Amino acid sequence: MSQWKLIRSSSWNQAIPDPDPTGRWLHLIIDAESSANVLSQTVLEDLSQRLDQVPEFAGVEALIISSAKNGHFIAGADVKAIGSAKNVDQVNDACRSAQDLFGRLSRLSIPSIAVIHGTCLGGGLELSLGCTARIAIEDPRTRIGLPEVNLGIIPGFGGTVRMTRLLGLRGALGWILPASRLPAKVAHRKGVVDASVPVEGFRTLSLQLIEKMVADRFRKVKAQRKKRRKGLISYFLDQTALGRSIVCRQATKSVRARTLGHMPAPERAIEVARLSAHLSEKMALVEEAKAVSRLATGPVCRNLVSIFQDSERVRRGVEGQPEGVWPDAKQLIVLGAGVMGSGVATMAIEKSISTRLRDISEDAIDQGLKKIGDAVDSRRKKRRITTYQQAEILSRLSHGKELVGLERCGGVLEAVVERLDVKRSVLAEIAPLLAKDAIFATNTSALSVTAIQKDSPVADRVVGLHFFNPVPKMPLVEVIPGEFTDPQVVGIALSLARKLGKYPVIVKDSPGFLVNRLLLPYLDAASRLLLKGLSGSHIDEVARAHGLPMGPFRLMDEVGLDIGVEVQETLHSAFGDRAASSPILLKMVQKGWLGKKSGIGFYHHRGKSSTWNRQLDPMVQASPSTLPPAQIISSLLDPMVDEAARCLEEKVVADAGLLDLAMVMGTGYPPHLGGPLRAADAEGLSAIEKRLRAAHESGAARSPCNLLVDLASRNERFHTHS
Amino acid sequence: MIVDGARTPFVRAGEDLRSVPVDELARSCTRGLLDRVPFDSTHVDELILGCVAQPPNCANPARAVALRSGLDESTPAHTVSRNCASGMQAISDAYDRIRVGASDTVLAGGAESMSQIPILFPLSFGFKLSSLSRARNFAEKLAGIFHFKFADLKPRIGLLEGLRDPFSGEMMGDTAERLAREWGISRADQDLYALESHRKAVAAEETLQREINALAVPPRLDRVVRHDVGPRPGAKLEKMARMKPYFDRKMGSVTIANSCGITDGAAMLLLMESAQAKSLGLKPVARILGSAFVGCDPLRMGLGPVHAMAALLKDHDLELADIDRVELNEAFAAQVLACQAALASDQYSREVGFSKTPGAIDSDRLNVFGGAIALGHPVGATGARLILTLARQLHAAGGGHGIATMCIGGGQGGAVLIEGIPS
User: Sign of the CA dihedral B385, B387, B391, B397?
Assistant: First the structure.
């Protein structure tokens, strides 16, 4: 079956127009065999063949490129192929031929116009950029962008070069660096597409536009493009060497501030864009292909692609996971208006779920409502939503002390205080009122879901949903089925988490679940380094430089030391000495130093600034010492790798990919390292195992677990396929 | 059947609820009501909202309320106005719709944001503006600009114009002054009545609180309003006596303290056909038996309740003595006392159609939880609040008949007869 159709037609009323041998228009329609239109090798080859046929149609006036899939244009290049790229030359050749292929679109004897309805990302946009003109359809599904840098590469099918030639250096970097996906109207405003058309009857409207464009030989389109780049400043920044170097320096600076130099792709993108602004298109394309081939075969790209693939897997549903559908018409009742409760409620109302916020204290409700109001209002201030949308979002929220509305409720999410007796009594209160098919989700970070649900008449409908703080920012949700949980309930919980825009990972009901269990050895290692006399703020800096979003001590202050101690005690009693709590934490909590919320922890927090807490120094007996950064990092992360291996052994999580994804999404573990297991794989497991063994021999409670020892001895990896 | 109802707190205009638009007031209590009643809201067939000052940016606020409170898109909604009795009209209409079988389940009530009644430019301003926009050249434009006078910019306070009788140009307070003069109601009696209204409302605070659904003020949700602000526990007769008459400064007796307050608020009721309520397993609080609206002299609009009650009781073959509770809206103390006097008057009661003189209503049957003098009178909402309060008090009292009645600006009276259903 051919993936592209070439049809000559005189009208355009449906996705596949009626053929007419004397028609004025030639339609080139993509309908790939895969569910998404992905520019795989065969799709590109097929396109090439179709373009060869174009000259056979004498008398047509334009080539119109569209998709046969409703609300979906082209999703981009084949991510799998990018992730498995090994050979630099192969990638280079593939890019060169795709660049040339898209370039042919503008060199045909007739003009080519892309009509973009739906997702148009990466390679899809690069293909469109090869056309004479572009029309975008104003459908909410239309998203146009170049997300390549998120995958550690740059647009390599001519996108970097053609974007720069279309929009100028500044405009192009504005698209490539943030990797944003923008709607039709914005794309039109920014000049990437030449027109945007309402979705109703868009084919007729587009055809009218194309007719006009063809009639005036694209004069108006070209004038419009020129107008956008008029002006002295524009001339200086885009057309002069000095201007370009200023733009690039600024862009590089802001990229470095964000990535700390860990991501090569944005910097390469800036270089290639700069070259394309003054080199000939041909030479610039060569440079682009070169840059991509180096990036695509590098470790960062491989890691980012792996994480992306795992996230897609989770978003679509991991094979073998129970299925279920959150009932859209039903409301969600959130019990507990604290930070977590109001965070979840905010997400829910923003994602069109009618929500009731309930707390037993009016004060708590007031505080929670204020948090929700501020969160939604800040989105309006950033112009993410209009005032009308804001009113609509807020109208989905109700609140009160009364426990009502359970008949119309698809699920209850409980986010009350972390105490087993409280959680059990809340469940007991809800159980008789819970509608027949509603679920009861408990947001707990440390309590056992089985212990909560045990003996409840609705035990089968109880499921753990562990959100991470701050809820709107952290994309991970741990879904924890207890012993008595019905698989269908797990399915509904997964569906709810996805509906809230989160990535749900199923985790076994075991102490600390996954993320906290892995974080703790890391935090514990940090405080042990502190007790050895290392400077805490230095440890934080080293961790930051390694790519972690914040150092261990800042993280503990952020989370709250009391919560840290609580989790630690849970884990200590479950896992014995290797999870023994560090003495310093306990002492600090006794002093009332709880971290950010009490204004003092490892740091003094005053407003937005914070300084290291000098009062801690007397607690450390050891004399000040230092270690090289690499050694600090390995002492921090090795115990985490060991604990992660234990989680795999105990089947806390289904596979290594999900574990890595959870750490990236739940803790901000640097995605360019691909997660703790991929990073360990890259370093070599035997080195890690050796260090852990040495540490154990010199007194540490932790010794490398069987799986780690086993893999290390056989020189194998956690990730078998990569 | 009245299944249940809910209302927002009633808050003096210009205070905590001033930034809340009328559709949000009604939405908030509708959502609270829907949460409170254990049934599936897809059963709601339509929504009727009473509202006098419908906001210019939201024609038919009822529809906005229906959509925003999560009712299905296919649920129709319309807004009704009968001035002060708009909320009562909405419920009366809902009752009729159910009775003729057009609907089984209706959300009905009223809402008013008196804080948000617009301030207007004189029409002359608009006319000149439109002729300016038609100007074709510079000279015409210049001429157009010079046509404007300062008088064109004199604001018209929508709230005050709304409280003016459109036929005689008198303020509503002036009609109350007329009743006070005609029926010989003294300033002291009015103040005493007003004090009593406050006392009753303060005493009934807990009961009234159960009607209320707290409202978080959008868009920041940084303030949650939970309580009525009208009733004053510290109201003193001496203080009231010191107030100057507001409408007739020289000779008058009607003051701000013995009139109802200008207030923001909304009240919604869930009405259902009785078989429907039964099949859904709901326990209604009261049953509506009928309603009556009667016209009277616009200059004596305050006597409207007497006319309406006469017609309503005649329809149902009942005497006023058979009625256990009456909620008579307190637009002005003078107006309530005039109604009492009229009911006691042989001549007047005969004129309006009572077969025998009903006599004044005893105070333990009349407005037992206080009235609009204490709670305030958000014009569109009050009718619904009266019925809500009445229905719940009859329900709590274990049944009996009750009438909610009110005077209507422009010279009308409205009354609704209900029967409480014991729990």
Answer: positive
CB-based contact B219 A376, cutoff 8 Å: yes
Angle at B42 (CA atoms; ends B289, A396), nearest 5 degrees: 110
The percent of residues in chain B predicted with pLDDT above 70, rounded, is 100
> CB–CB of A398 and B31 under 8 A?
yes
- Return the domain boundaries, chain A: 4-297, 331-506, 515-713
Give me the CATH number covering residue B389: 3.40.47.10
Q: How confident is the model at residue A318 (pLDDT cuts 50, 70, 90)?
A: confident
Mean pLDDT of chain B, nearest integer: 95
Q: pLDDT band at residue A722, thresholds of 50, 70 and 90? A: very low
Q: Mind listing the pLDDT tens digit for each residue in A557-585?
A: 988 888 888 888 889 999 988 888 778 88
Answer yes or no: are the C-beta atoms of A21 and A10 closer than 8 Å: no
Rounded distance between C-alpha atoms, residue A602 and residue A615, angstroms: 9
Nearest to A391 among B69, B218, B220 (CB): B218
Q: What is the CA radius of gyration of chain A?
A: 28
Whether residue A1 is predicted with pLDDT greater than 60 in this model: the reply is no
Per-residue pLDDT of B116-162, as tens digits, reads 999 988 998 889 999 899 988 899 889 888 888 888 888 888 898 88
**Cβ–Cβ below 8 Å for A404 and B226:** no
Answer yes or no: is pLDDT of B98 > 60.
Answer: yes
Are B213 and A406 an interchain contact pair (Cβ–Cβ within 8 Å)? no
Mean pLDDT for the stretch of residues A265-281: 94
The whole-number pLDDT of residue B20 equals: 96
Long-range contact list for B352-361, CB < 8 A, 24+ apart? B352/B306, B352/B307, B352/B310, B353/B307, B353/B310, B353/B311, B353/B314, B354/B310, B354/B313, B354/B320, B355/B314, B356/B319, B358/B319, B358/B320, B358/B321, B359/B320, B361/B320, B361/B326, B361/B328
Whether B101 contacts B250, CB under 8 Å: no
CATH of A515-713, one of 1.10.3720.10, 1.10.730.10, 1.10.1040.50, 1.10.10.10: 1.10.1040.50
Which chain A residues are Cβ-neighbours of B42 within 8 angstroms? 329
Q: What is the C-alpha separation between A648 and A717, in angstroms, rounded?
A: 13
Mean pLDDT calculated for residue range B46-57: 95
CATH topology classification for A331-506: Rossmann fold (3.40.50)
CA B63/CA B58 separation, integer angstroms: 9
- Any bridge partners for residue A357, and if so which? A334, A399
Residues A214-233 as b/e (b if ≥16 CB within 10 A, e otherwise) read beeebeebeeeeeebbeeee
B39: chain A residues, CB-CB within 8 Å? 407
pLDDT at A721 over 70: no
The residues that bridge with B417 in the sheet, in sequence order, are B290, B403
Say if the Cβ atoms of B39 and A407 lie within 8 Å.
yes
Report the percent of chain A where pLDDT is more than 70: 100
Condensed to tens digits (0 to 9), the pLDDT of residues A43-62 reads 999 999 999 999 999 999 99
Choice among B84, B260, B296, B339 that is catalytic? B84
Interface residues on B facing A, Cβ-Cβ cutoff 8 A: 24, 27-28, 31-32, 34-36, 38-42, 68-70, 213-214, 216, 218-222, 224, 226
CA A591 to chain centre: 39
- Match domain A4-297 to its CATH number in 3.40.80.10, 3.90.226.10, 1.10.10.10, 3.30.1120.10: 3.90.226.10
Nearest CA in chain B to A366: B224
Q: Is the pLDDT of residue A373 over 50?
A: yes
What is the complex's ipTM, to 2 decimals? 0.92
* B328 domain-assigned: yes
Q: Which residue has the tokens 């108006």?
A: A220
The boundaries of the domain holding residue B108 are 2-117+261-418
